[in-house]
């Protein structure tokens, strides 16, 4: 199961970094979804084979997903945060294209106006 860290409370315009650590290298894909009260789950960012492949339109140009090989982890750098980014962020990992996703425990991100 991925282990998430980071998150917290920040003012609008600020930055936060989320990290998602897994037990070994060689993942197929990793990324983040988020869930805000009253909203549906939303894909935030994904990378396949360590390369970013897609971002939600709402975060393009502000969020960046990358891989930290030394720590077997994925990193989501979130800049220019907005109150509407407030949500619980869940990372996931897939070890092959047909496999199921393993999910992290979720981490709260709160952006104040």
Structural description of this entry:
By secondary structure, the protein is mainly beta. Helices cover 0% and strands 54% of the residues. It has no helices and eleven strands. The strands form two sheets. Strands 2, 4, 5, 6, 9, 10 and 11 form a seven-stranded mixed beta sheet that branches. A four-stranded antiparallel beta sheet has the order 1-3-8-7, with no helix packed on it. Strand 4 (29-35) and strand 5 (42-48) form a beta hairpin. It is globular. It starts with a strand and ends with a strand. The mean pLDDT is 95.
Quick take:
The chain has no helices and eleven strands. It is an all-beta fold and 113 residues long.
Provide a count of the helices. Answer: 0
Radius of gyration equals 13 Å
Tell me what portion of residues adopts beta-strand conformation: over 45%
- Please give the number of β-strands: 11
**Helical coverage, percent range:** under 10%
SSE layout:
Blueprint lengths: L2 E4 L1 E4 L4 E6 L7 E7 L6 E7 L2 E5 L7 E6 L4 E6 L8 E8 L7 E2 L3 E6 L1
Parallel strand pairs: 2-11
Antiparallel strand pairs: 1-3, 3-8, 4-5, 4-9, 5-6, 7-8, 9-10, 9-11
């Amino acid at each position: 199961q991925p282990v998430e860290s980071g998150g917290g409370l920040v003012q609008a315009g600020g930055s936060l970094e989320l990290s998602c650590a897994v037990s070994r290298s060689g993942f197929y894909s990793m990324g983040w979804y988020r869930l805000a009260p009253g909203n549906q789950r939303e894909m935030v960012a994904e990378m396949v084979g360590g390369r970013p492949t897609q971002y939600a339109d709402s975060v393009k140009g502000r969020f960046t997903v990358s891989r930290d090989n030394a720590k077997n982890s994925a990193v989501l750098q979130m800049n220019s945060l907005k109150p509407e980014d407030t949500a619980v962020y869940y990372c996931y990992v897939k070890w092959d294209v047909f496999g199921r996703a393993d999910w992290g425990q979720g981490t709260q991100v709160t952006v104040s106006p």
